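Quick one: Alpha/beta hydrolase from Bradyrhizobium quebecense, structure tokens please.
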Amino acid sequence: MSVATKLLAAAASLGLATATIPAAQAQSAPVKSIVLVHGGFVDGSGWEGVYKILKKDGYKVSIVQNPTTTLADDVAVTKRAIAAAEGNVILVGHSYGGVVVTEAGTDPKVAGLVYITAFAPDQGESVGKLIANPPPGAPVPPILPPKDGFLSLDHAKFAAAFAADVKPDVAAFMADSQVPWGVAALNGEVSAPAWKSKPSWYLVATNDKMIPVDAQRMMAKRAGAKTVDQAGSHAVYVSKPEAVAKVIEQAAKGVGDKQK
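--- reply ---
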């Protein structure tokens, strides 16, 4: 017999109305706060389409603007967003943002994690380690040599590698508005992976030219994530916001907000 059932039975035996114990039902309420974390080379503006869908569906959404300088800095900024959110949250990361949510997701307010074609490192892993030895035939991201400790993508190759299914003018804007990605962030190692203690979801972008599909599947399986395949580029969160929002909402409905 569940705790809720026992409470209801006890209330009935005492002649109490079931409305006197609403907390028993609150356990299964969906999480309504979402925190979105962007990856390297971009900022939070790419989440606009996903944001609008989630807001329309009644969710409270925060978009983190990580500096992408070091993993520690990005985790600190993300944790401030988590602290400011109402109730428990679903923490969502794209690409390198998956590293950030893996590290920040141990926060007690985080009810679940969503990876959008993202890195989901294990303890001691970083993006640098995960991409060090690509399998034969895997796509090679057009990352230019670092300048002053920061990385960028070749502008001429940005669209094909990062945003092949995004409208050309939008892809051009993304290329021209790149945010330099710190080598220190690339090499930031996870200390305690949140996916080991929190339920996880993973959207695999099957046309991704930045993170090999096989690598996505490996990380999703290792994390025990509920996995959804979606045809799309690395920028699937921009090109297919409906599909991305659907996975996020599945996560929000799949976990209970235990914060009273």
